[in-house]
Amino acid sequence: MQKKIPTRKCVGCGEMKDKRELVRVIKTPEDEILLDTTGRANGRGAYICNNIDCFKKALKNKGLERSLKAQIPEDVLDKLSKEFGE
Question: What's the pTM value of the predicted model, to 2 decimals?
């Protein structure tokens, strides 16, 4: 029997992709918003394709804020966009 590959929906482009292809952004129980490189950190997660275009779309359509159920502070957005390679 083949092992099922978990898929997640990108909050930027809306495409379903293999979980390993996506980057996870989390809101921790302490209300910190960070990039989760391990994919295992505690907190509410949102998945985005690993490119700056999807990140920008997720900001524009408020997909990231909706998924995390939180407003994202400007300094955190700057940090995230640097990590996405802008």
Answer: 0.89
Q: Is 23 helix (H, G, I), strand (E, B) or coil?
A: strand
Strands 16-18, 22-27: pairing kind: unpaired
- Give me the tens of pLDDT residue by residue for the chain, a chain 86 residues long: 788 889 999 999 999 999 999 999 999 999 999 999 888 999 999 999 999 999 999 999 999 999 999 999 899 898 888 888 76
Query: What is the chain's alpha carbon radius of gyration, rounded to the nearest angstrom?
Result: 13
Nearest to residue 67, comparing CAs of 50, 55, 53? 55
Contact 85, 55 (CB under 8 A): no
Half-sphere CA count of 29, side-chain side, radius 13 A: 2
